[in-house]
Amino acid sequence: MDDYIISIKGIKRSFPGVKALDGINLNLRKNSVHAIVGENGAGKSTLMKCLLGLYTPDEGEIYFDSKIVSFKDASDALNLGISMIHQELSPVVTRNVMENIWMGRYPLNKFGFVEHKKMQQQTQDLFDDLGIDISPIEIMSNLSVAKMQMIEIAKAISYKSKVIIMDEPSSALSQRETEQLFSMIKKLKEKNVSILYISHRLAEIFTICDEATVLRDGKWIITKPVKEFTTASLVTYMVGRDLTDMFPKTHKEIGSTKLVVENLTCQKVFKAISFELRKGEILGFAGLIGAGRTELMEALFGLRKFDSGTVKIDGKEVSIKNPYDAIKNGFCLVTEDRRHNGIIPMLSVKENMVVVNLSKYLTKIGLLKTKPIDDDVRLYIEKLRIKSPTLYTLIQNLSGGNQQKTLIARWLLTEPEILILDEPTRGIDVGAKAEIYSIISDLASNGKSIIVVSSEMPEIIGLCDRTIVMHEGMKTGELDKEQLEQEKIMDLAMMDVAAP
Amino acid sequence: MAKINKQVIEKYLIYLVLLVIVVVFTVLEPKFISFDNIINLLRQVSVIGLLAMGVALVIISKGIDLSSGSVVAVSAVVGASLAQKPDAPNKFFENIPQLNLLLIVAICILVGIFIGLVNGLLIAYTGIPAFIATLGTMVVFRAFAMLYTGGQPISFLRPDYEFLGKGYLFTILPIPVVIFLVITFITWVLVNYTTFGKGIYAIGGNIHASTVSGIKVNKILALDYMYAGALAALGGVLLSARVGGGQPSFGTGYELDAIAAATIGGVSHSGGIGTVGGVLAGVIILGVINNGLNLLGVQAEWQSVAKGAIIVISVIIDTKKYNKNQ
Fold first, then answer.
1. Would you call A79 an interface residue with chain B, using a CB distance cutoff of 8 Å?
2. Do residues A202 and A313 share a domain?
3. Cβ-defined contact of B214 to A93 (cutoff 8 Å)
4. What spatial distance separates the first Cα and last Cα of chain B, rounded to whole Å?
5. Does any CB of chain B come closer than 8 Å to the CB of residue A91?
6. Which of A121, B1, B27, B54 suits a disulfide with B228, CB 3.0-4.6 Å?
7. Which residues from B are below 8 Å from A304, CB to CB?
8. Residue A499 within a domain
């Protein structure tokens, strides 16, 4: 017991209809980095929220430094010495950096008033210590997602806690910033801090973690030192079955040119982007966050006005001014952030799926025909293996992977010719990822033209026939399947193109 | 460089607008800028100004308070009932002793704090929208004011009480104006220099981040509405003091004017945005419009049209300002 800073015994927690945690045991050794691995829905976030006082367990005990504890709210956990880097970055964007970091614990002078100069100095000291180069008085909304994540990391560290929970801390970071994070973690270990590390990026787990615990369906599966796992064995524990080939090897023919983009420019966002896309082809777009890929896709889909350039489909120039035009021309876009602009959380799976396609289900007087709708929905639930209790389940109650599949079904119902998928497997567990890759592959085999924007190297390398790399709004290179290699992609992703 | 200039202009836009409006009215009617008129104007906006300061803090926390007008009514009738002259006919409380003036004011403010507490608890703990909660208290407490007075006005108030509304400091500054400016300063200090004030912005900007950072959200929200209630009650005291009586119909529609003033002053209904200086400017702009149009002999209905137009235009400007950053 004395070896462990946190001991969790038999934690159970249920929500209406689902047992999120079913008897979890976990021991966090002092001064170690302990990975928590599992598919979406395995219970990782719920467990962490119990540790941070945001949820109360229904049963079970939590021991901190060998003493039993119970939390009323987040401030209890924070005061005890547990802090967290949250997966969903949620800063207060209208305030500045230092107020975000010291939220709820602003330095006060002896009269009880906030001391701004002291707050600024504290922030500067914290940043200097961690090697972060951001101004404490910058307004959060002016910062990139990567910088916001660095600030979130600094904030968790500033609580001087004995335990830091890191939930997908590197999701928005570049390679360089991720290495910076790892060296911060090494320094923290030396300062007697213990870390719980949650990540879908298994490579990171092998780099930085000492032990790993696997959760599946709310149950504790196994805990072992990391060096006793292999990627394959870890995945097998997570998924409960053998997943040898993530990427389906299908033989397919690549057809004629479908889409030609010439010199597309959107001031300050992307410049002179040109490329071609053929039928049956999967074209990847790689690059760091901020490269302009999502913005390019938004422009193609009519969500963003661009300043110059042309788009030709099947040889004819098209003018796309809004998503309606784009859909009529055979485009579809599965967005990068399904939570914000993909799912309609309070509507059912069925409603989410048919929402774009409603005009195809109208009777002569304009009312909706329920039977064809239900039939189509059932067809796609089966085809894409969407796991949902019923058609009427609210989509927000589904796991990320199933939500994403519902969105893909939504667009497939419109029978698109050109599919744009922006980070299609972000935040999705290994099992669902493989299923989505096989869906994408099948679509390509059927002659659809597909664009995949992705920040995950294995995905780009395994899935795409060709890849375009962007950096800060410019196209820095184009690689085909044989040339696709992690290093080549990263080089192009960080290359500075001289302005013409 | 151009970016910095733009942000500076946006920050001070409201004051620029105020300046322009003042200049326009002065040109149209030179009497506008006379000392007497300005004092008059400030006195006219003092009560709404108090309400606006309170409701601004509520809107910043992403809430709303529709009950301020009713708080004015309750506070006015309670205050008046406690402050009648000893020889007043049809006295409300037959044998009431001559209470200390500060005690009477304190009681009224406590009433406002109580109503604010009801609002705060409803909103923080039941999860019903602030609009509904304060709509409910607005109706209930207006009715309470009716019941309290039995529908009869209360008048013949003590001169020391009336001094609060009719008196002057240093013979030129009306007491209501002084009180309004002092409260504005206090609000400014609260908002910029206390955990409470910064907590309001954090909660309005992102309630999830606030909870997760250990901010006591429910406590701060309750205090927020209590502050708004206290200020509205103070407004009720000043109003009854100025008028020399208390009626349950006082303050009708004041909550909308207060919200309008705060909105014109740049407080955003999406939460987390707004400044005390902006609210002050918004209050004065509203007052200037009313006062100026009055001086020009414009009908009261056109003043309402102008007020409505200004509210909508200022929100359009604010929306464009923040959508640009998305």
1. yes
2. no
3. no
4. 21
5. yes
6. B54
7. none
8. no
The answer to whether residue A245 is domain-embedded is: no
Which phi-psi region, left, alpha or beta, contains residue A30 (left: φ > 0; alpha: ψ -120 to 50)? beta
Same domain, A88 and A166: yes
Position A289 scores a pLDDT of: 66
Considering only the beta carbons, identify the residue of A84, A99, A142 that sits closest to B198. A99
Lowest mean pLDDT among A56-65, A246-255, B11-20: A246-255
Query: Which of A239, A267, A290 finishes a domain?
Result: A239
pLDDT digits (tens, 9 = 90+) for B248-280: 999 999 999 999 999 999 999 889 999 999 999
Neighbours of A386 (CB within 10 A): 22
Q: Are A228 and A262 found together in one domain?
A: no
> Does pTM top 0.90 for this prediction?
no
Which pLDDT does position B3 carry in this prediction? 56
Q: Is A156 inside any structural domain? A: yes
Which residue in B193, B212, B273 is closest to A113 by CB distance?
B193
Does residue A23 sit in the same domain as residue A168? yes
Based on the domain organization, do A75 and A217 belong to the same domain?
yes
Contact between B212 and A94 using a beta-carbon 8 Å cutoff: no
Q: Which residue of B has its CA nearest to A79?
A: B214
Which residues in chain A are contacts of B2 at CB distance < 8 A?
none
Chain A neighbors of B198, CB-CB under 8 A: 99, 103, 106, 114
The answer to whether residue A193 is domain-embedded is yes
Is A368 an 8 Å CB contact of chain B? no
User: Would you call A95 and B214 a contact, using CB atoms and an 8 Å cutoff?
Assistant: no
- Number of domains within chain A: 2
Q: H/E/C letters for each residue in B176-236?
A: HHHHHHHHHHHHHHHHHHCHHHHHHHHHHHCHHHHHHCCCCHHHHHHHHHHHHHHHHHHHH
Chain B CB contacts of A78 under 8 Å are 213-214
Same domain, A190 and A292: no
Residues A377 and A485 in one domain: yes
Domain containing residue A360: CATH number: 3.40.50.300
State the alpha helices, DSSP H only, in A106-226. 116-130, 145-158, 175-190, 202-208
Q: Please give the average per-residue pLDDT across A344-369, as a whole number.
A: 90
B206 touches chain A (CB under 8 A): yes
Q: Residue A231: which domain range?
A: 4-239
Task: Please determine, for residue A487, whether its predicted confidence score (pLDDT) is greater than 80.
Answer: no
Nearest CA in chain A to B201: A95
Is the ipTM reported for this complex over the cut 0.90?
Answer: no
Residue B47: per-residue pLDDT? 96
> pLDDT band at residue B326, thresholds of 50, 70 and 90?
very low
Nearest one of A311, A329, A332, A313 to A265, comparing CA atoms: A311
> A79 pLDDT exceeds 70?
yes
Q: Do A235 and A291 reside in the same domain of the chain?
A: no
The amino acid sitting at B200 is: I
The two tokens of residue A405 are 């599949």
Asked whether residue A430 carries a pLDDT value surpassing 70, the answer given is yes
Q: Give the separation between CA B109 and CA A271, rounded to whole angstroms.
A: 62
